[in-house]
Structures are given as structure tokens and as C-alpha cells.
């Protein structure tokens, strides 16, 4: 687990810093101690230099912007080149306390963004009472800049422009506070590949330790809340946020974290990733933007043979469900799908098997007997339809088979239901999606449905 935002070089840790760092070394993968002005950033670097697991960020907080200007460009560049520095910031806009004039905040923020571009470092963004202004600033200046909105406090407009720009979103202890229900709600709109956690210690201790001085290891409380909210396990959130932090701040990934996953576990289910091919090109899809999903690198560059899956599944009986769902469409590898499913059923006939599919299996395989062939092997289908009529489907899902795709998809759903599979149709709640029509569509087909939150991986193009 990584605390992506702490200030352990602050005086609040003077008494017991060594102890705190020792605890971090034992329990965390890394901590980033974040500077707030140039003197403070030097202290951050000193503390980072004292431990293998502590890294520093250097920058000028908007409160301190009044003491700096574009003339300090070179001084920041120099500090930022210290080996343990992994980011620039915290920087940004704070119109709550307005300790620096607004124009100066903009000037110093903009300067640091330019340095980030020059040095190819990620930025750590602080924003308070300035969501709209920050959203506008990001739209205007963040082309090609990597970074994170630190201690995100829930503003939807800011979330959208940050995700459109490819930024990460970091949740601090405030997400654990009972009254912050709306903030917790936003978690479901953040792609798993952009989620981070932090403490902002010594401030903002999470609920169970609220009122105490915060410290990096308390980041685990935030992880627990995030897990509960997203229906994930603590281990899942640990993996997801650790890998994300390493990717953003260029910290070394372990071999396991880097490896392209053929199978991957989430909670007590095992997912099978057969291929990276898909005949669709949904407007909201993560493919082409992200390789990592739920903390796993799923972007396969080859098509492994079925035995490689069997070797990795090992004992299918230990999972509550086996799900064919990965970077691409399982029916693109129909023979492998069948073979692996047969093997699973042979060793564990009671383990349910689901296939998450785009529903174009008939067109992909040019075989309308596939569902009959899968009887007894597959228990359920989750079919991503994402539209309630042909016109909407062609516009949003953009299948390569064109016009005939819709009729084939509907036939697949009806056949699957008639043959006794459990069938669920799904849709993403993208801008302009008609929820009522989709519910009607599912009811008319007599199948269950699920509408998933729209996560912005990139800018939504109309
Ligand atoms: S069907 Fe799924 S994998 Fe294929 S493009 Fe659409 S969302 Fe992406």
C-alpha cells in the first residue's frame, strides 16, 4: 500500500519521525512526502533521503504563491532533479483562505505545470473552493501532463475534466467521515486504473482515529472505506492503488504487477482473460487508453493456448464463480473458451461459469450452434448491449459487422434465454443514455438488466 500524499517532514513529526518512518517501512510499499514551498521541499528531500521507502515531491502550494513568481523557475527545476523526487507539487488554486492573490496563484501554478512538462514529472494538485476554475485550467493547460487531484472532495465538474485529461483521483481520510456520503458516491465514477489513496498526514485523520495526528499507515482506514463502497476486498484496493501509484510516480513495479494477466482474481471470483480482440469499439471503452484494470495488466499481446489457462486456474473449486471477462471479447476465442470451460466443469462441476460478452458470438464465429454447444458448460451470460435500439447501438457500440449486428445480438439474447441460460443485459450510463428505454428493452426480452456507472477514461466525443 502506498500513501501518495503525506507531510512527514513537517514539525508535527519532529518528535517521532524515525519511529513513524520505521513503521512505514514495515507496513507500506512507499510514502510520498510532499513539499509546500522551496524550503519545505528541501526538508522533504532530506527526509526522503533517509529511507528507501520515502519519496519526495517539490513544489509551491497556492498559499505560498505570494512569495514566489516565474523568476523561481530554475530553482524548482534544480530541486526537482534530486534523485528521490517523484513529482512536482503540491500546486494549484486555493480560493478558500485566499492567502495569496489569485493572479499570483495562477502564475505560480502555471509555471510549475510547465516545469512538469519539461521534466516529464507528474503533478500533485491542491484545489479548494476553486473547482470550476481548476476544471477550466486543466482543460486549457493539461495536454500531456500527468498528475493527481489530491484529497479530492467530490466536485463532479472537476472530476470530469480531470479524468478527461487522464489525471488520477486521490481520496484521503475525509472519505471515511460519516457525513461525506456524496464524496463516497463519486468513487464509482473513477476508473479503477485512476484511483489513489493518501493520508495528507499530519492532517485529516480517518474516522476511526479522527482527532489524532494522522500518519501514513492510517491510509489503511481509507482503503477499507473505499473497498466497502466499491464492493471490493481490502486486498483488491491495496493492489489497485499500489499499482496505480507506482505507474503514476514511476516507482518500480514488481514482476507480478507488470505481468500480463491470463487469469486474475477479484474478491472470490476468478476472471479469465482470453484475448485483446473485440469486434466493437464502444465510445466509453477503456481499451486503447488503459492497460490496467483493477490493478492487473490485461492487455495481452498474444493469444495463449488453453493449457496455459488451466495451469494458472489450478483448482477452480476454490472460487465462487469463474468469469470469462478480460481485455477483449471471449467469443473471439470460441474454441479456447469451450476447452477451458470443459476443463473447469470436469474438475469442479458446481463452480458456476459466466461469460461476459458483447453478444455478437454468432457473427464472430459464423456459427449459430454455439449456444447449444455451450449448454452444460456455461451457466450465465452477461451481455453488454449499451443501447435500446439499433440506431443508438450503431452510434455508441460501433460494431465492425455494421447494420446486421443488432439483429444478431437480439437473436443471441433470445436464444440464450430460450435455451435456459441465465441472461443479463448490461449498459453503461453514458451521456445521453436512455435508462427508461433500456429497462423497457430488457423487460420485453424478459431478462435481467444492470446499468453501470459511466467512467470517463477519455473525453466523451458526441
Ligand atoms: S464490447 Fe466491451 S471490450 Fe468491446 S469495445 Fe465495447 S466495452 Fe470495450
TrEMBL record:
Record domain Radical SAM core: where: 264-462
NCBIfam families: tatD_link_rSAM, YchF/TatD family DNA exonuclease
InterPro entries: Aldolase_TIM, DNase_TatD-rel_CS, Metal_Hydrolase, rSAM, rSAM_sf, rSAM_TatD-assoc, TatD-like, TatD/YcfH-like
A single cellular component GO annotation: cytosol
Protein name (database record): TatD DNase family protein
UniProt record similarity statement: Belongs to the metallo-dependent hydrolases superfamily. TatD-type hydrolase family.
Record GO terms (molecular function): DNA nuclease activity; hydrolase activity, acting on ester bonds; iron-sulfur cluster binding; metal ion binding
Lineage: Bacteria, Pseudomonadati, Aquificota, Aquificia, Desulfurobacteriales
Organism, as annotated: Balnearium lithotrophicum
PANTHER family: D-AMINOACYL-TRNA DEACYLASE
Chain segments annotated as coiled-coil in the UniProt record: none
Keywords of this entry: Hydrolase, Iron, Iron-sulfur, Metal-binding, S-adenosyl-L-methionine
Cofactor(s) in the UniProt record: [4Fe-4S] cluster
Amino acid at each position: 500500500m502506498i500513501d501518495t500524499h503525506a507531510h512527514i517532514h513537517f514539525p508535527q513529526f519532529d518528535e517521532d519521525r524515525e519511529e513513524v518512518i520505521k513503521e512505514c517501512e514495515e507496513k507500506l510499499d512507499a510514502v510520498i512526502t510532499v513539499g509546500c514551498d522551496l524550503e519545505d521541499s528541501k526538508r522533504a528531500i532530506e527526509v526522503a533521503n533517509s529511507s528507501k521507502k520515502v519519496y519526495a515531491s517539490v513544489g509551491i502550494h497556492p498559499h505560498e504563491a505570494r512569495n514566489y513568481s516565474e523568476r523561481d523557475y530554475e530553482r524548482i527545476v534544480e530541486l526537482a532533479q534530486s534523485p528521490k523526487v517523484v513529482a512536482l507539487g503540491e500546486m494549484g488554486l486555493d480560493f478558500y483562505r485566499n492567502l495569496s492573490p489569485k493572479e499570483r496563484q495562477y502564475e505560480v501554478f502555471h509555471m510549475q505545470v510547465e516545469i512538469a512538462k519539461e521534466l516529464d514529472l507528474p503533478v500533485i494538485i491542491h484545489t479548494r473552493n476553486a473547482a470550476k476554475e481548476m476544471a477550466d485550467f486543466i482543460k486549457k493547460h493539461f495536454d500531456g501532463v500527468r498528475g493527481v487531484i489530491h484529497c479530492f472532495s467530490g466536485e463532479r465538474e472537476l472530476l470530469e475534466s480531470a479524468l478527461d485529461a487522464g489525471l488520477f483521483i486521490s481520496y484521503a481520510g475525509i472519505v471515511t467521515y460519516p457525513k461525506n456520503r456524496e464524496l463516497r458516491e463519486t468513487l464509482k465514477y473513477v476508473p479503477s486504473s485512476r484511483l489513489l489513496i493518501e493520508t495528507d498526514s499530519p492532517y485529516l485523520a480517518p474516522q476511526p482515529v479522527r482527532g489524532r495526528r494522522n500518519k501514513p499507515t492510517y491510509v489503511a482506514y481509507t482503503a477499507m472505506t473505499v473497498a466497502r463502497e466499491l464492493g471490493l476486498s481490502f486486498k483488491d484496493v491495496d493492489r489497485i492503488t499500489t499499482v496505480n501509484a507506482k505507474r503514476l510516480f514511476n516507482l518500480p513495479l514488481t514482476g507480478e504487477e507488470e505481468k500480463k494477466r491470463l487469469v486474475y482474481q477479484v474478491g472470490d471470483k476468478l476472471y479469465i482473460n482470453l484475448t485483446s480482440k473485440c469486434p466493437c469499439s464502444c465510445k466509453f471503452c477503456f481499451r486503447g487508453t488503459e492497460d490496467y484494470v483493477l490493478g492487473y495488466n490485461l492487455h495481452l499481446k498474444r493469444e495463449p493456448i488453453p493449457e496455459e489457462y488451466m495451469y494458472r486456474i489450478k483448482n477452480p473449486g476454490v472460487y465462487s464463480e469463474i468469469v470469462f471477462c478480460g481485455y477483449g471479447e471471449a467469443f473471439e476465442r470460441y474454441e479456447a473458451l469451450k476447452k477451458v470451460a470443459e476443463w473447469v466443469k470436469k474438475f469442479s462441476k458446481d463452480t458456476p461459469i459466466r461469460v461476459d460478452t458483447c453478444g455478437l458470438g454468432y457473427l464472430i464465429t459464423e456459427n449459430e450452434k454455439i449456444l447449444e454447444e455451450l449448454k452444460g458448460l456455461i451457466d450465465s451470460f452477461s451481455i453488454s448491449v449499451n443501447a435500446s435500439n439499433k440506431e443508438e447501438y450503431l452510434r455508441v457500440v460501433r460494431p465492425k459487422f455494421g447494420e446486421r449486428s443488432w439483429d444478431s445480438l437480439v437473436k443471441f439474447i433470445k436464444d440464450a434465454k430460450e435455451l435456459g441460460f441465465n441472461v443479463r443485459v448490461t449498459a453503461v450510463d453514458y451521456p445521453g443514455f436512455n435508462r427508461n428505454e433500456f429497462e423497457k428493452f430488457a423487460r420485453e426480452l424478459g431478462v435481467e438488466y444492470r446499468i453501470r456507472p459511466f467512467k470517463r477514461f477519455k473525453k466523451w466525443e458526441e
